[in-house]
Design brief:
The structure holds 2 protein chains of 2 kinds.
Chain A: H1 7-21, H2 23-32, H3 37-47, H4 50-61, H5 66-76, H6 78-91, H7 96-103, H8 107-114, H9 119-149, H10 159-171, H11 178-194, H12 202-217, H13 247-256
Chain B: H1 2-23, H2 26-30, H3 32-55, E1 56-57, E2 60-61, H4 65-78, H5 83-99
Antiparallel strand pairs in B: 1-2
Helix pairs in contact in B: 3-4, 4-5
The chains are: A mainly alpha, B mainly alpha.
Chain lengths: 262, 103
């Protein structure tokens, strides 16, 4: 494999550093939300999907049960199945590569791969980003967890505010156009209404039902919400304008259909 | 102990989702509804988690320093700050507001 001078490898390395680094915030928030060091590391090593990991600790931090945390994390992981299908069609991995590749299938590795047009580059992009993020994400989770355990009262440091910011940052890149904003607002309202009536953690599942219904009944972009937290190919000019999907989104649209709704 | 069990189930199911894509015939998942729902659910869950972490205190709703963190994060994101900067802005604002006496 020719690795020097490969654009996909270059992008893969920079997205690995950018994504890996924010493992620090996951590690720190995880230990301050009540998980121990080993549970925190188990999430990064075994679950390995940023949004789902933050969801799990977010529910636990809010006093939710283990089953509610598991449900939120699992529902949020559904999109990785879609990514797996796209990558399977694109990269055609065989044998053990399917099993290893599956674990590395997340927003960023998918976006790095689908942002390339040459099949060899698509493969290099996926493996560079996937392995790079996996290694760095776990190292920085450990760093964050060790730092977080020494902090004392997490509220004094505003770590509950950090969690709010982290979730908004995960949501933000997916709010392109009016429809995703409407879905986000509807789910936020449903959550607030549900909070006083059901146990902690459950309002999130109520919102999941609202979101699933919205997806079932409406006919918008097929890849709505399927954007990486960090866009490997840079931000397009008008990112909130409809139809100006980033390069990665547009390429991904090739495998699932048109990227923009009529 | 029981948290460990749910945590490991979550890990197993996360890997199961990922594997499904590689092993289930593409036709099954190619149903546009599957990817639509995966996408809208991602948006809905993240919006819900943002709100829960900002205003829920157990089963009560509260307006405290976390709302300041939410606003600070939105401003940072509007200026296209990187993820870690957004998180630090949220933490710093909540900590500062508490220092000023707003819980």
């Amino acid at each position: 494999m020719k690795l020097t001078g490969s654009p996909a490898v270059k992008v893969g390395i920079s997205i690995s550093i950018a994504t890996g680094l924010y493992g620090i915030s996951f590690g720190a928030l995880s230990v301050t939300s009540g998980l121990n060091l080993w549970q925190t590391m188990a999430l990064s090593l075994l679950l390995f999907s940023g949004g789902s990991q933050f969801a799990f600790i977010g529910v636990v931090a809010g006093g939710g049960s283990g089953i509610a945390a598991m449900s939120a994390a699992t529902l949020l992981g559904m999109r990785n199945g879609i990514y797996g299908m796209q990558l399977n069609a694109l990269l055609r991995p065989s044998g053990w590569r399917k099993y290893v590749g599956a674990q590395l299938t997340i927003d960023e590795s998918t976006a790095t791969s689908t942002g390339q047009t040459d099949p060899a580059e698509q493969r290099r992009g996926f493996w560079t980003a996937g392995i790079g993020i996996y290694v760095l994400w776990n190292i920085f989770t450990l760093v964050g967890a060790l730092a977080g355990s020494g902090l004392g009262d997490p509220k004094r440091w505003g770590l509950d505010g950090a969690a709010v910011a982290a979730f908004l940052a995960l949501l933000w890149p997916r709010l392109k156009g009016r429809e995703p904003v409407a879905i986000a607002v509807a789910c936020a309202v449903a959550t607030v209404i549900a909070v006083p009536f059901v146990p902690p953690g459950v309002p999130i599942l109520v919102a999941a039902v609202v979101a699933a219904l919205a997806g079932w009944l409406s006919h918008g972009r097929r890849d709505e919400g399927l954007e990486p937290d960090i866009e490997p190919y840079g931000h397009p000019a008008g990112r909130h304008a409809r139809g100006s999907a980033p390069q990665a989104g547009a390429e991904r649209g090739d495998t699932t259909g048109p990227a923009a709704a009529p | 102990m029981s948290l460990w069990i749910w945590l490991l189930i979550a890990c197993a199911l996360a890997y199961a989702w990922k594997l499904v894509g590689y092993f289930v015939p593409a036709k099954l998942l190619a149903d546009p509804r599957a990817s639509r729902i995966a996408g809208t659910m991602t948006i809905g869950l993240l919006a819900s988690l943002t709100v829960v972490n900002a205003v829920a205190s157990g089963q009560a709703l509260a307006a405290d320093a976390r709302l300041g963190a939410l606003a600070a994060a939105a401003v940072a994101l509007a200026f296209r700050a990187p993820f870690l900067v957004v998180v630090i802005a949220g933490a710093g604002t909540a900590a500062l507001l508490r220092l000023l006496g707003w819980n």
